[in-house]
């Protein structure tokens, strides 16, 4: 009897909490994967402002990109799409747009003048075939950074900090290994291996080579000596893996630098959120390098997509979300915590740390910026590329010639 | 991301079979499935026979052997991924004991990783087979065994040649349960290796899930799923047919 009373009471309590919330304001259910310490602090900045603007935020955080895709796909297919969901700027939305399953946020984008404050290439990515802006570009990440622990380098006696994947870099890694620490920490998930490969590719080939391969799909560039050199360097990097690398996630990997267990790693600048959450400072406790003969930068944008649906208030909530998330204030607060750059170029950058300023300098220079593979290749082709990278990295029996042939096939096979 | 109904013939299947990842997935499923089923049956039977020797503390032993089966696959995978982790698992432990050269890093070795998955699955699956076999052994006519012993048939021949045929229903039941376990291996792989290192522990279910949901490649994913269904029919079909024929014969005999 008592138990029954408790259950009824609990339901009544929940009901009492929910009902007024549902009645007021725009209700937005947002599916995202921002769950690590730095990431969740970042999204909270948007949530607070959204609620202050009268909205109601229903947080649907899931763990990992595949779970995100699965949840979103199932919800859209079942006719119960979320108000918004996190995604990557790229070509993954073409199917949904063709089926008319996405709304746009063009009204807000035009009213708030997004086109004046976002760089051209990014505007192209978030604009649909009708010329309407349909994605909310939350931030811009560079996925091709090298990070290092100043402490570890000092302990191992590394004096010359490398700028790219050259002999200086490998010498430094070996020196740290000899000192009994992990020289180069690489994680064991295929997307980490892929970002590492892309970082090597851009560093050794430069912007023109990158664009020739991924944008112009120039077979001569793909079969050039540069590609061979890239694969050679990538294979050499695979030999520096420590025993614990298998399956290691990127936060664990970054943590090895934070705790002084490892010297270098390569990860997107979302890793900076972990450094920040651990109380470490850019260019004081840890250093950052955009590798290459110049500091090249791959544009990797986190966006929110807004599915269409018949429920009342959906469009209003989406427009409010677009307005709030893109305000200069939430852009800067969100990105300070996440470690990324604000997509808007007109925000107050005085609070950016040393690494963000490096990134910003490259992001603002059209000569140094290249689009990510997701922006130029279909999702299927990008997936095959990731397969190739992870197979090559983990299986020495795949020759470089075979790998180059497969790369050529993948690029040629993408729409 | 959502299905579009255009007729493309066998294009998606061609893409599927050209993918080295799919090939590795299929090989792994066969390798894993065979070793897993055979090892579980053998070990389960041996354990059941040993326990059947009227040992002390039988209830306790039974509980211990069966307990892994009570764990979810995800928990099993996680715990074993810690146990097998070379930096703080078994290898580190033995090295700390003083055996500096001890190497046991299956999870980070692409050639051995699939065996780590099998090992974990066998650990979990043996108990249930043992219980089934034990139940079967208890049903064997004790008088018959005694008379065979009187006739001078050695014990090992009884256990290898006389009892197994009597246990056929138990073996079949175990087979069905274990086969289901092979299909379930998805959870275990996700928790233990996430399909890595590289693509070395991919299984078809993982391939389909990732292509469908993470890559939005509905075509190749559904082609993979169709092949999975077909192979299930090929494996299960004859078994069902055989049972039907067997039961018809029995009816006819009566």
Tell me about this structure.
The complex is a heterodimer of chains A (415) and B (254). The radius of gyration of chain A is 23 Å and the shape is globular. Chain A folds into two domains: 26-142 and 300-363, 3-Layer(aba) Sandwich (D-Maltodextrin-Binding Protein, domain 2); 145-299 and 370-413, Periplasmic binding protein-like II (D-Maltodextrin-Binding Protein, domain 2, 3-Layer(aba) Sandwich), CATH 3.40.190.10. In chain A, helix 2 (37-52) links the parallel strand 1 and strand 2 (56-61). Chain A is of the alpha/beta class. Chain A is built from 20 helices and eleven strands. Chain A has helices at 2-23, 37-52, 65-77, 94-98, 106-111, 114-117, 120-126, 150-156, 167-178, 190-214, 219-222, 225-238, 250-258, 271-277, 314-325, 328-338, 354-363, 373-376, 379-394, 400-413; strands at residues 27-32, 56-61, 84-88, 135-141, 145-149, 182-185, 262-267, 286-289, 297-305, 341-342, 369-371. By secondary structure, chain B is mainly alpha-helical. Chain B has a domain at 24-194: MetI-like fold. Helix content of chain B is 75%, strand content 0%. Chain B has helices at 11-18, 20-51, 58-70, 73-83, 90-96, 113-139, 142-150, 155-166, 168-192, 204-214, 218-253. In chain B, helix 2 packs parallel to helix 6, helix 2 (20-51) crosses helix 9 and helix 6 packs antiparallel against helix 9. Chain B starts with 10 loop residues before the first helix and ends with a helix. The model of chain B has no long low-confidence stretch (mean pLDDT 85). The interface between A and B is medium-sized, with 33 and 35 residues.
